[in-house]
Specification:
Radius of gyration: 31 Å
Strand order of the largest sheet: 3-4-9-6-8-7
Order of helices and strands: HHEHEHEEHEEHEEEHEEHEHHHHEHEHH
Number of domains: 2
Structural class: alpha+beta
Strand content: 15-25%
Number of helices: 15
Largest sheet: 6 strands, mixed, barrel
Shape: elongated
Length: 407
C-alpha cells in the first residue's frame, strides 16, 4: 500500500500545471465556502444574541401551561429547588425575574391595551441594555414608582414625560388592579414593531399592582453563547420538571428559527452549486489524465500489473487532489476568518439602512467554530471519493488490446 501511495503521488506531479490548476480550484471552493459559512454562523450567533438579550433570554422558566395561557394566575415564587438548580448549573451566567400581564393604560380620553412588564431595572439593563433605547426622559431606577412606554404607545395616548397615566387590569386570582403612575421615559427602538411593544415598571411595584407579592411569570436565564444552551438544558430539566416548564430561545422565538433555517437552506444550495462546479473541474482533469495515459495503462496491465492495484493508484490520485486542496484551503481560511472575527465588517449606505430598519445590526460577524472548517473538509473528501469512482470503473472496463492500439 505504501508503494502505491508513492506511485500515486509521483504520477500526480507528472503534469504539474494541470495538478496545480485543479488543486487551486479546490482551494478556492474551500476558502469561499468557509468564508460564507463563517459569516453565516457569526451573523446568526450575533442575531440570536441580540434578540435573546433584548427580551427572551436564552432560557426561560415558567409554571407549566403559562406559555400557552399567559395568565397572571400561572405565576410562581422562587424556592430553594429553583435557586439550587440555577446555582448548580455552571453554564448559566445571569438570571432575572419578570412579571408580565395585559393592562389598559389611559390618559384623558385615550386608552390603549399593552403588555405591562415588571422588571428589576438594574438586572434588566444588564441583560437587554434597555436604558440605551430611552428617547425621552429617564430610565427607571430601582424602586421607582414610575413607568416607561414604547414610543408609539406614548404617541397614541398623547402623553409626554411627566404626565400621569391610569393603569387598569385584573390582578392575581381576579383581584382588581388599578393605579396612577407618572411617565418617567419613552423608549424608541430601532425596529418599528418593537415600538408598539408595551410598558415597563419596577418589579416590586408591578407585584403590588397585580396583587402578586414575591411572584413572577418567568425567570430569564443567560449563558455565554447559544452553543451552551443544550448543556444547560440537560442540567436543568431533570432538576426542575415537572414542577416547572423550561423553554429555550428557539422555542420562544420560532420565527427567528424559521428564518435561520430558510437562510441555511439557501446557503446549502449556493455552496452545492459551487462544489458541483469544482467537482466537474476535478472530474475533467481525471478524464483528461485517463485519456492521455490510456496506452500506458494498457501496457502496465499487459506486463502483469493487476487491475485492482491500478484502480487503487488512480483513485489515490483523485483523493490526493482533494486532500491537498482542503489542507491548503483551510490553512488559508483560518487566519482570514480569525482576523474577521476580531474585526467585523460594517455595512454602509443603503444596505446599512435596510438592516437597521429590521432591527438588525448593519455588521457582518464571523465565527471560528470547528464545523465551519470541518464541514468543508468532509464535503470535499466525499466529492473526491465520488470522483475516484471514474478511474476505478474505467480500468474495470478497459480492454487491453484496444488500449495498446490507442483506441
Amino acid at each position: 500500500m505504501w508503494k502505491d501511495l508513492q506511485i500515486a503521488w509521483r504520477n500526480l506531479w507528472r503534469n504539474r500545471k494541470r495538478t496545480i490548476i485543479t488543486v487551486s480550484a479546490v482551494v478556492l471552493a474551500v476558502v469561499l465556502s468557509t468564508f460564507s459559512s463563517s459569516m453565516q454562523e457569526g451573523t446568526y450567533a450575533r442575531m440570536i444574541d441580540n434578540i435573546v438579550k433584548f427580551y427572551s433570554g436564552y432560557i426561560q422558566i415558567h409554571l407549566p401551561g403559562y406559555w400557552e395561557s399567559k395568565s397572571i394566575n400561572d405565576t410562581f415564587e422562587s424556592d430553594s429547588l429553583l435557586e439550587q438548580a440555577i446555582l448548580s448549573t455552571p453554564e448559566i451566567t445571569f438570571s432575572t425575574s419578570r412579571l408580565e400581564s395585559f393592562t389598559l393604560v389611559s390618559s384623558g380620553e385615550n386608552t390603549r391595551g399593552c403588555a405591562l412588564i415588571g422588571i428589576d431595572p438594574a438586572k434588566e439593563d444588564s441583560l437587554t441594555g434597555l436604558s440605551r433605547w430611552i428617547h425621552q426622559g429617564n430610565y427607571l431606577s430601582p424602586g421607582d414608582p414610575g413607568i416607561i412606554l414604547a414610543v408609539n404607545l406614548a404617541r397614541n395616548l398623547g402623553v409626554t414625560v411627566g404626565d400621569t397615566l391610569i393603569l387598569l387590569s385584573q390582578g392575581y386570582h381576579g383581584v382588581s388592579a388599578s393605579a396612577l403612575m407618572p411617565l418617567r421615559g419613552i423608549l424608541k427602538f430601532s425596529s418599528p414593531q418593537l415600538n408598539n411593544f408595551g410598558a415597563y415598571m419596577d418589579l416590586d411595584h408591578a407585584r403590588d399592582f397585580f396583587g402578586a407579592p414575591d411572584r413572577s411569570t418567568s425567570l430569564v436565564l443567560m449563558v455565554n453563547d447559544y452553543h451552551q444552551v443544550a448543556r444547560a438544558m440537560e442540567a436543568l430539566e431533570p432538576k426542575l420538571e415537572p414542577a416547572y416548564s423550561v423553554k429555550t430561545w428557539d422555542e420562544l422565538q420560532p420565527d427567528l428559527v424559521n428564518m435561520i433555517t430558510g437562510d441555511r437552506a439557501g446557503a446549502v444550495i449556493m455552496k452545492g452549486i459551487l462544489y458541483v462546479v469544482v467537482g466537474f473541474g476535478i472530474l475533467g482533469t481525471i478524464i483528461m489524465m485517463m485519456a492521455e495515459r490510456r496506452k500506458e495503462m494498457g501496457v502496465m496491465i499487459a506486463i502483469g500489473m493487476q487491475k485492482y492495484r491500478l484502480q487503487r493508484i488512480l483513485a489515490l490520485e483523485s483523493l490526493y487532489i482533494g486532500l491537498i486542496g482542503v489542507l491548503i484551503g483551510v490553512a488559508l481560511s483560518l487566519p482570514i476568518v480569525s482576523t474577521l472575527v476580531s474585526h467585523p465588517v460594517p455595512l454602509t449606505g443603503e444596505s446599512a439602512k435596510v438592516y437597521e430598519s429590521f432591527g438588525i445590526e448593519a455588521v457582518f460577524y464571523f465565527s471560528t467554530i470547528p464545523r465551519v472548517f470541518v464541514n468543508q473538509a468532509i464535503t470535499v473528501f466525499i466529492l473526491a471519493l465520488v470522483i475516484a469512482l471514474y478511474p476505478v470503473l474505467t480500468i474495470r472496463n478497459l480492454k487491453v488490446i484496444n488500449a495498446l492500439r490507442g483506441h
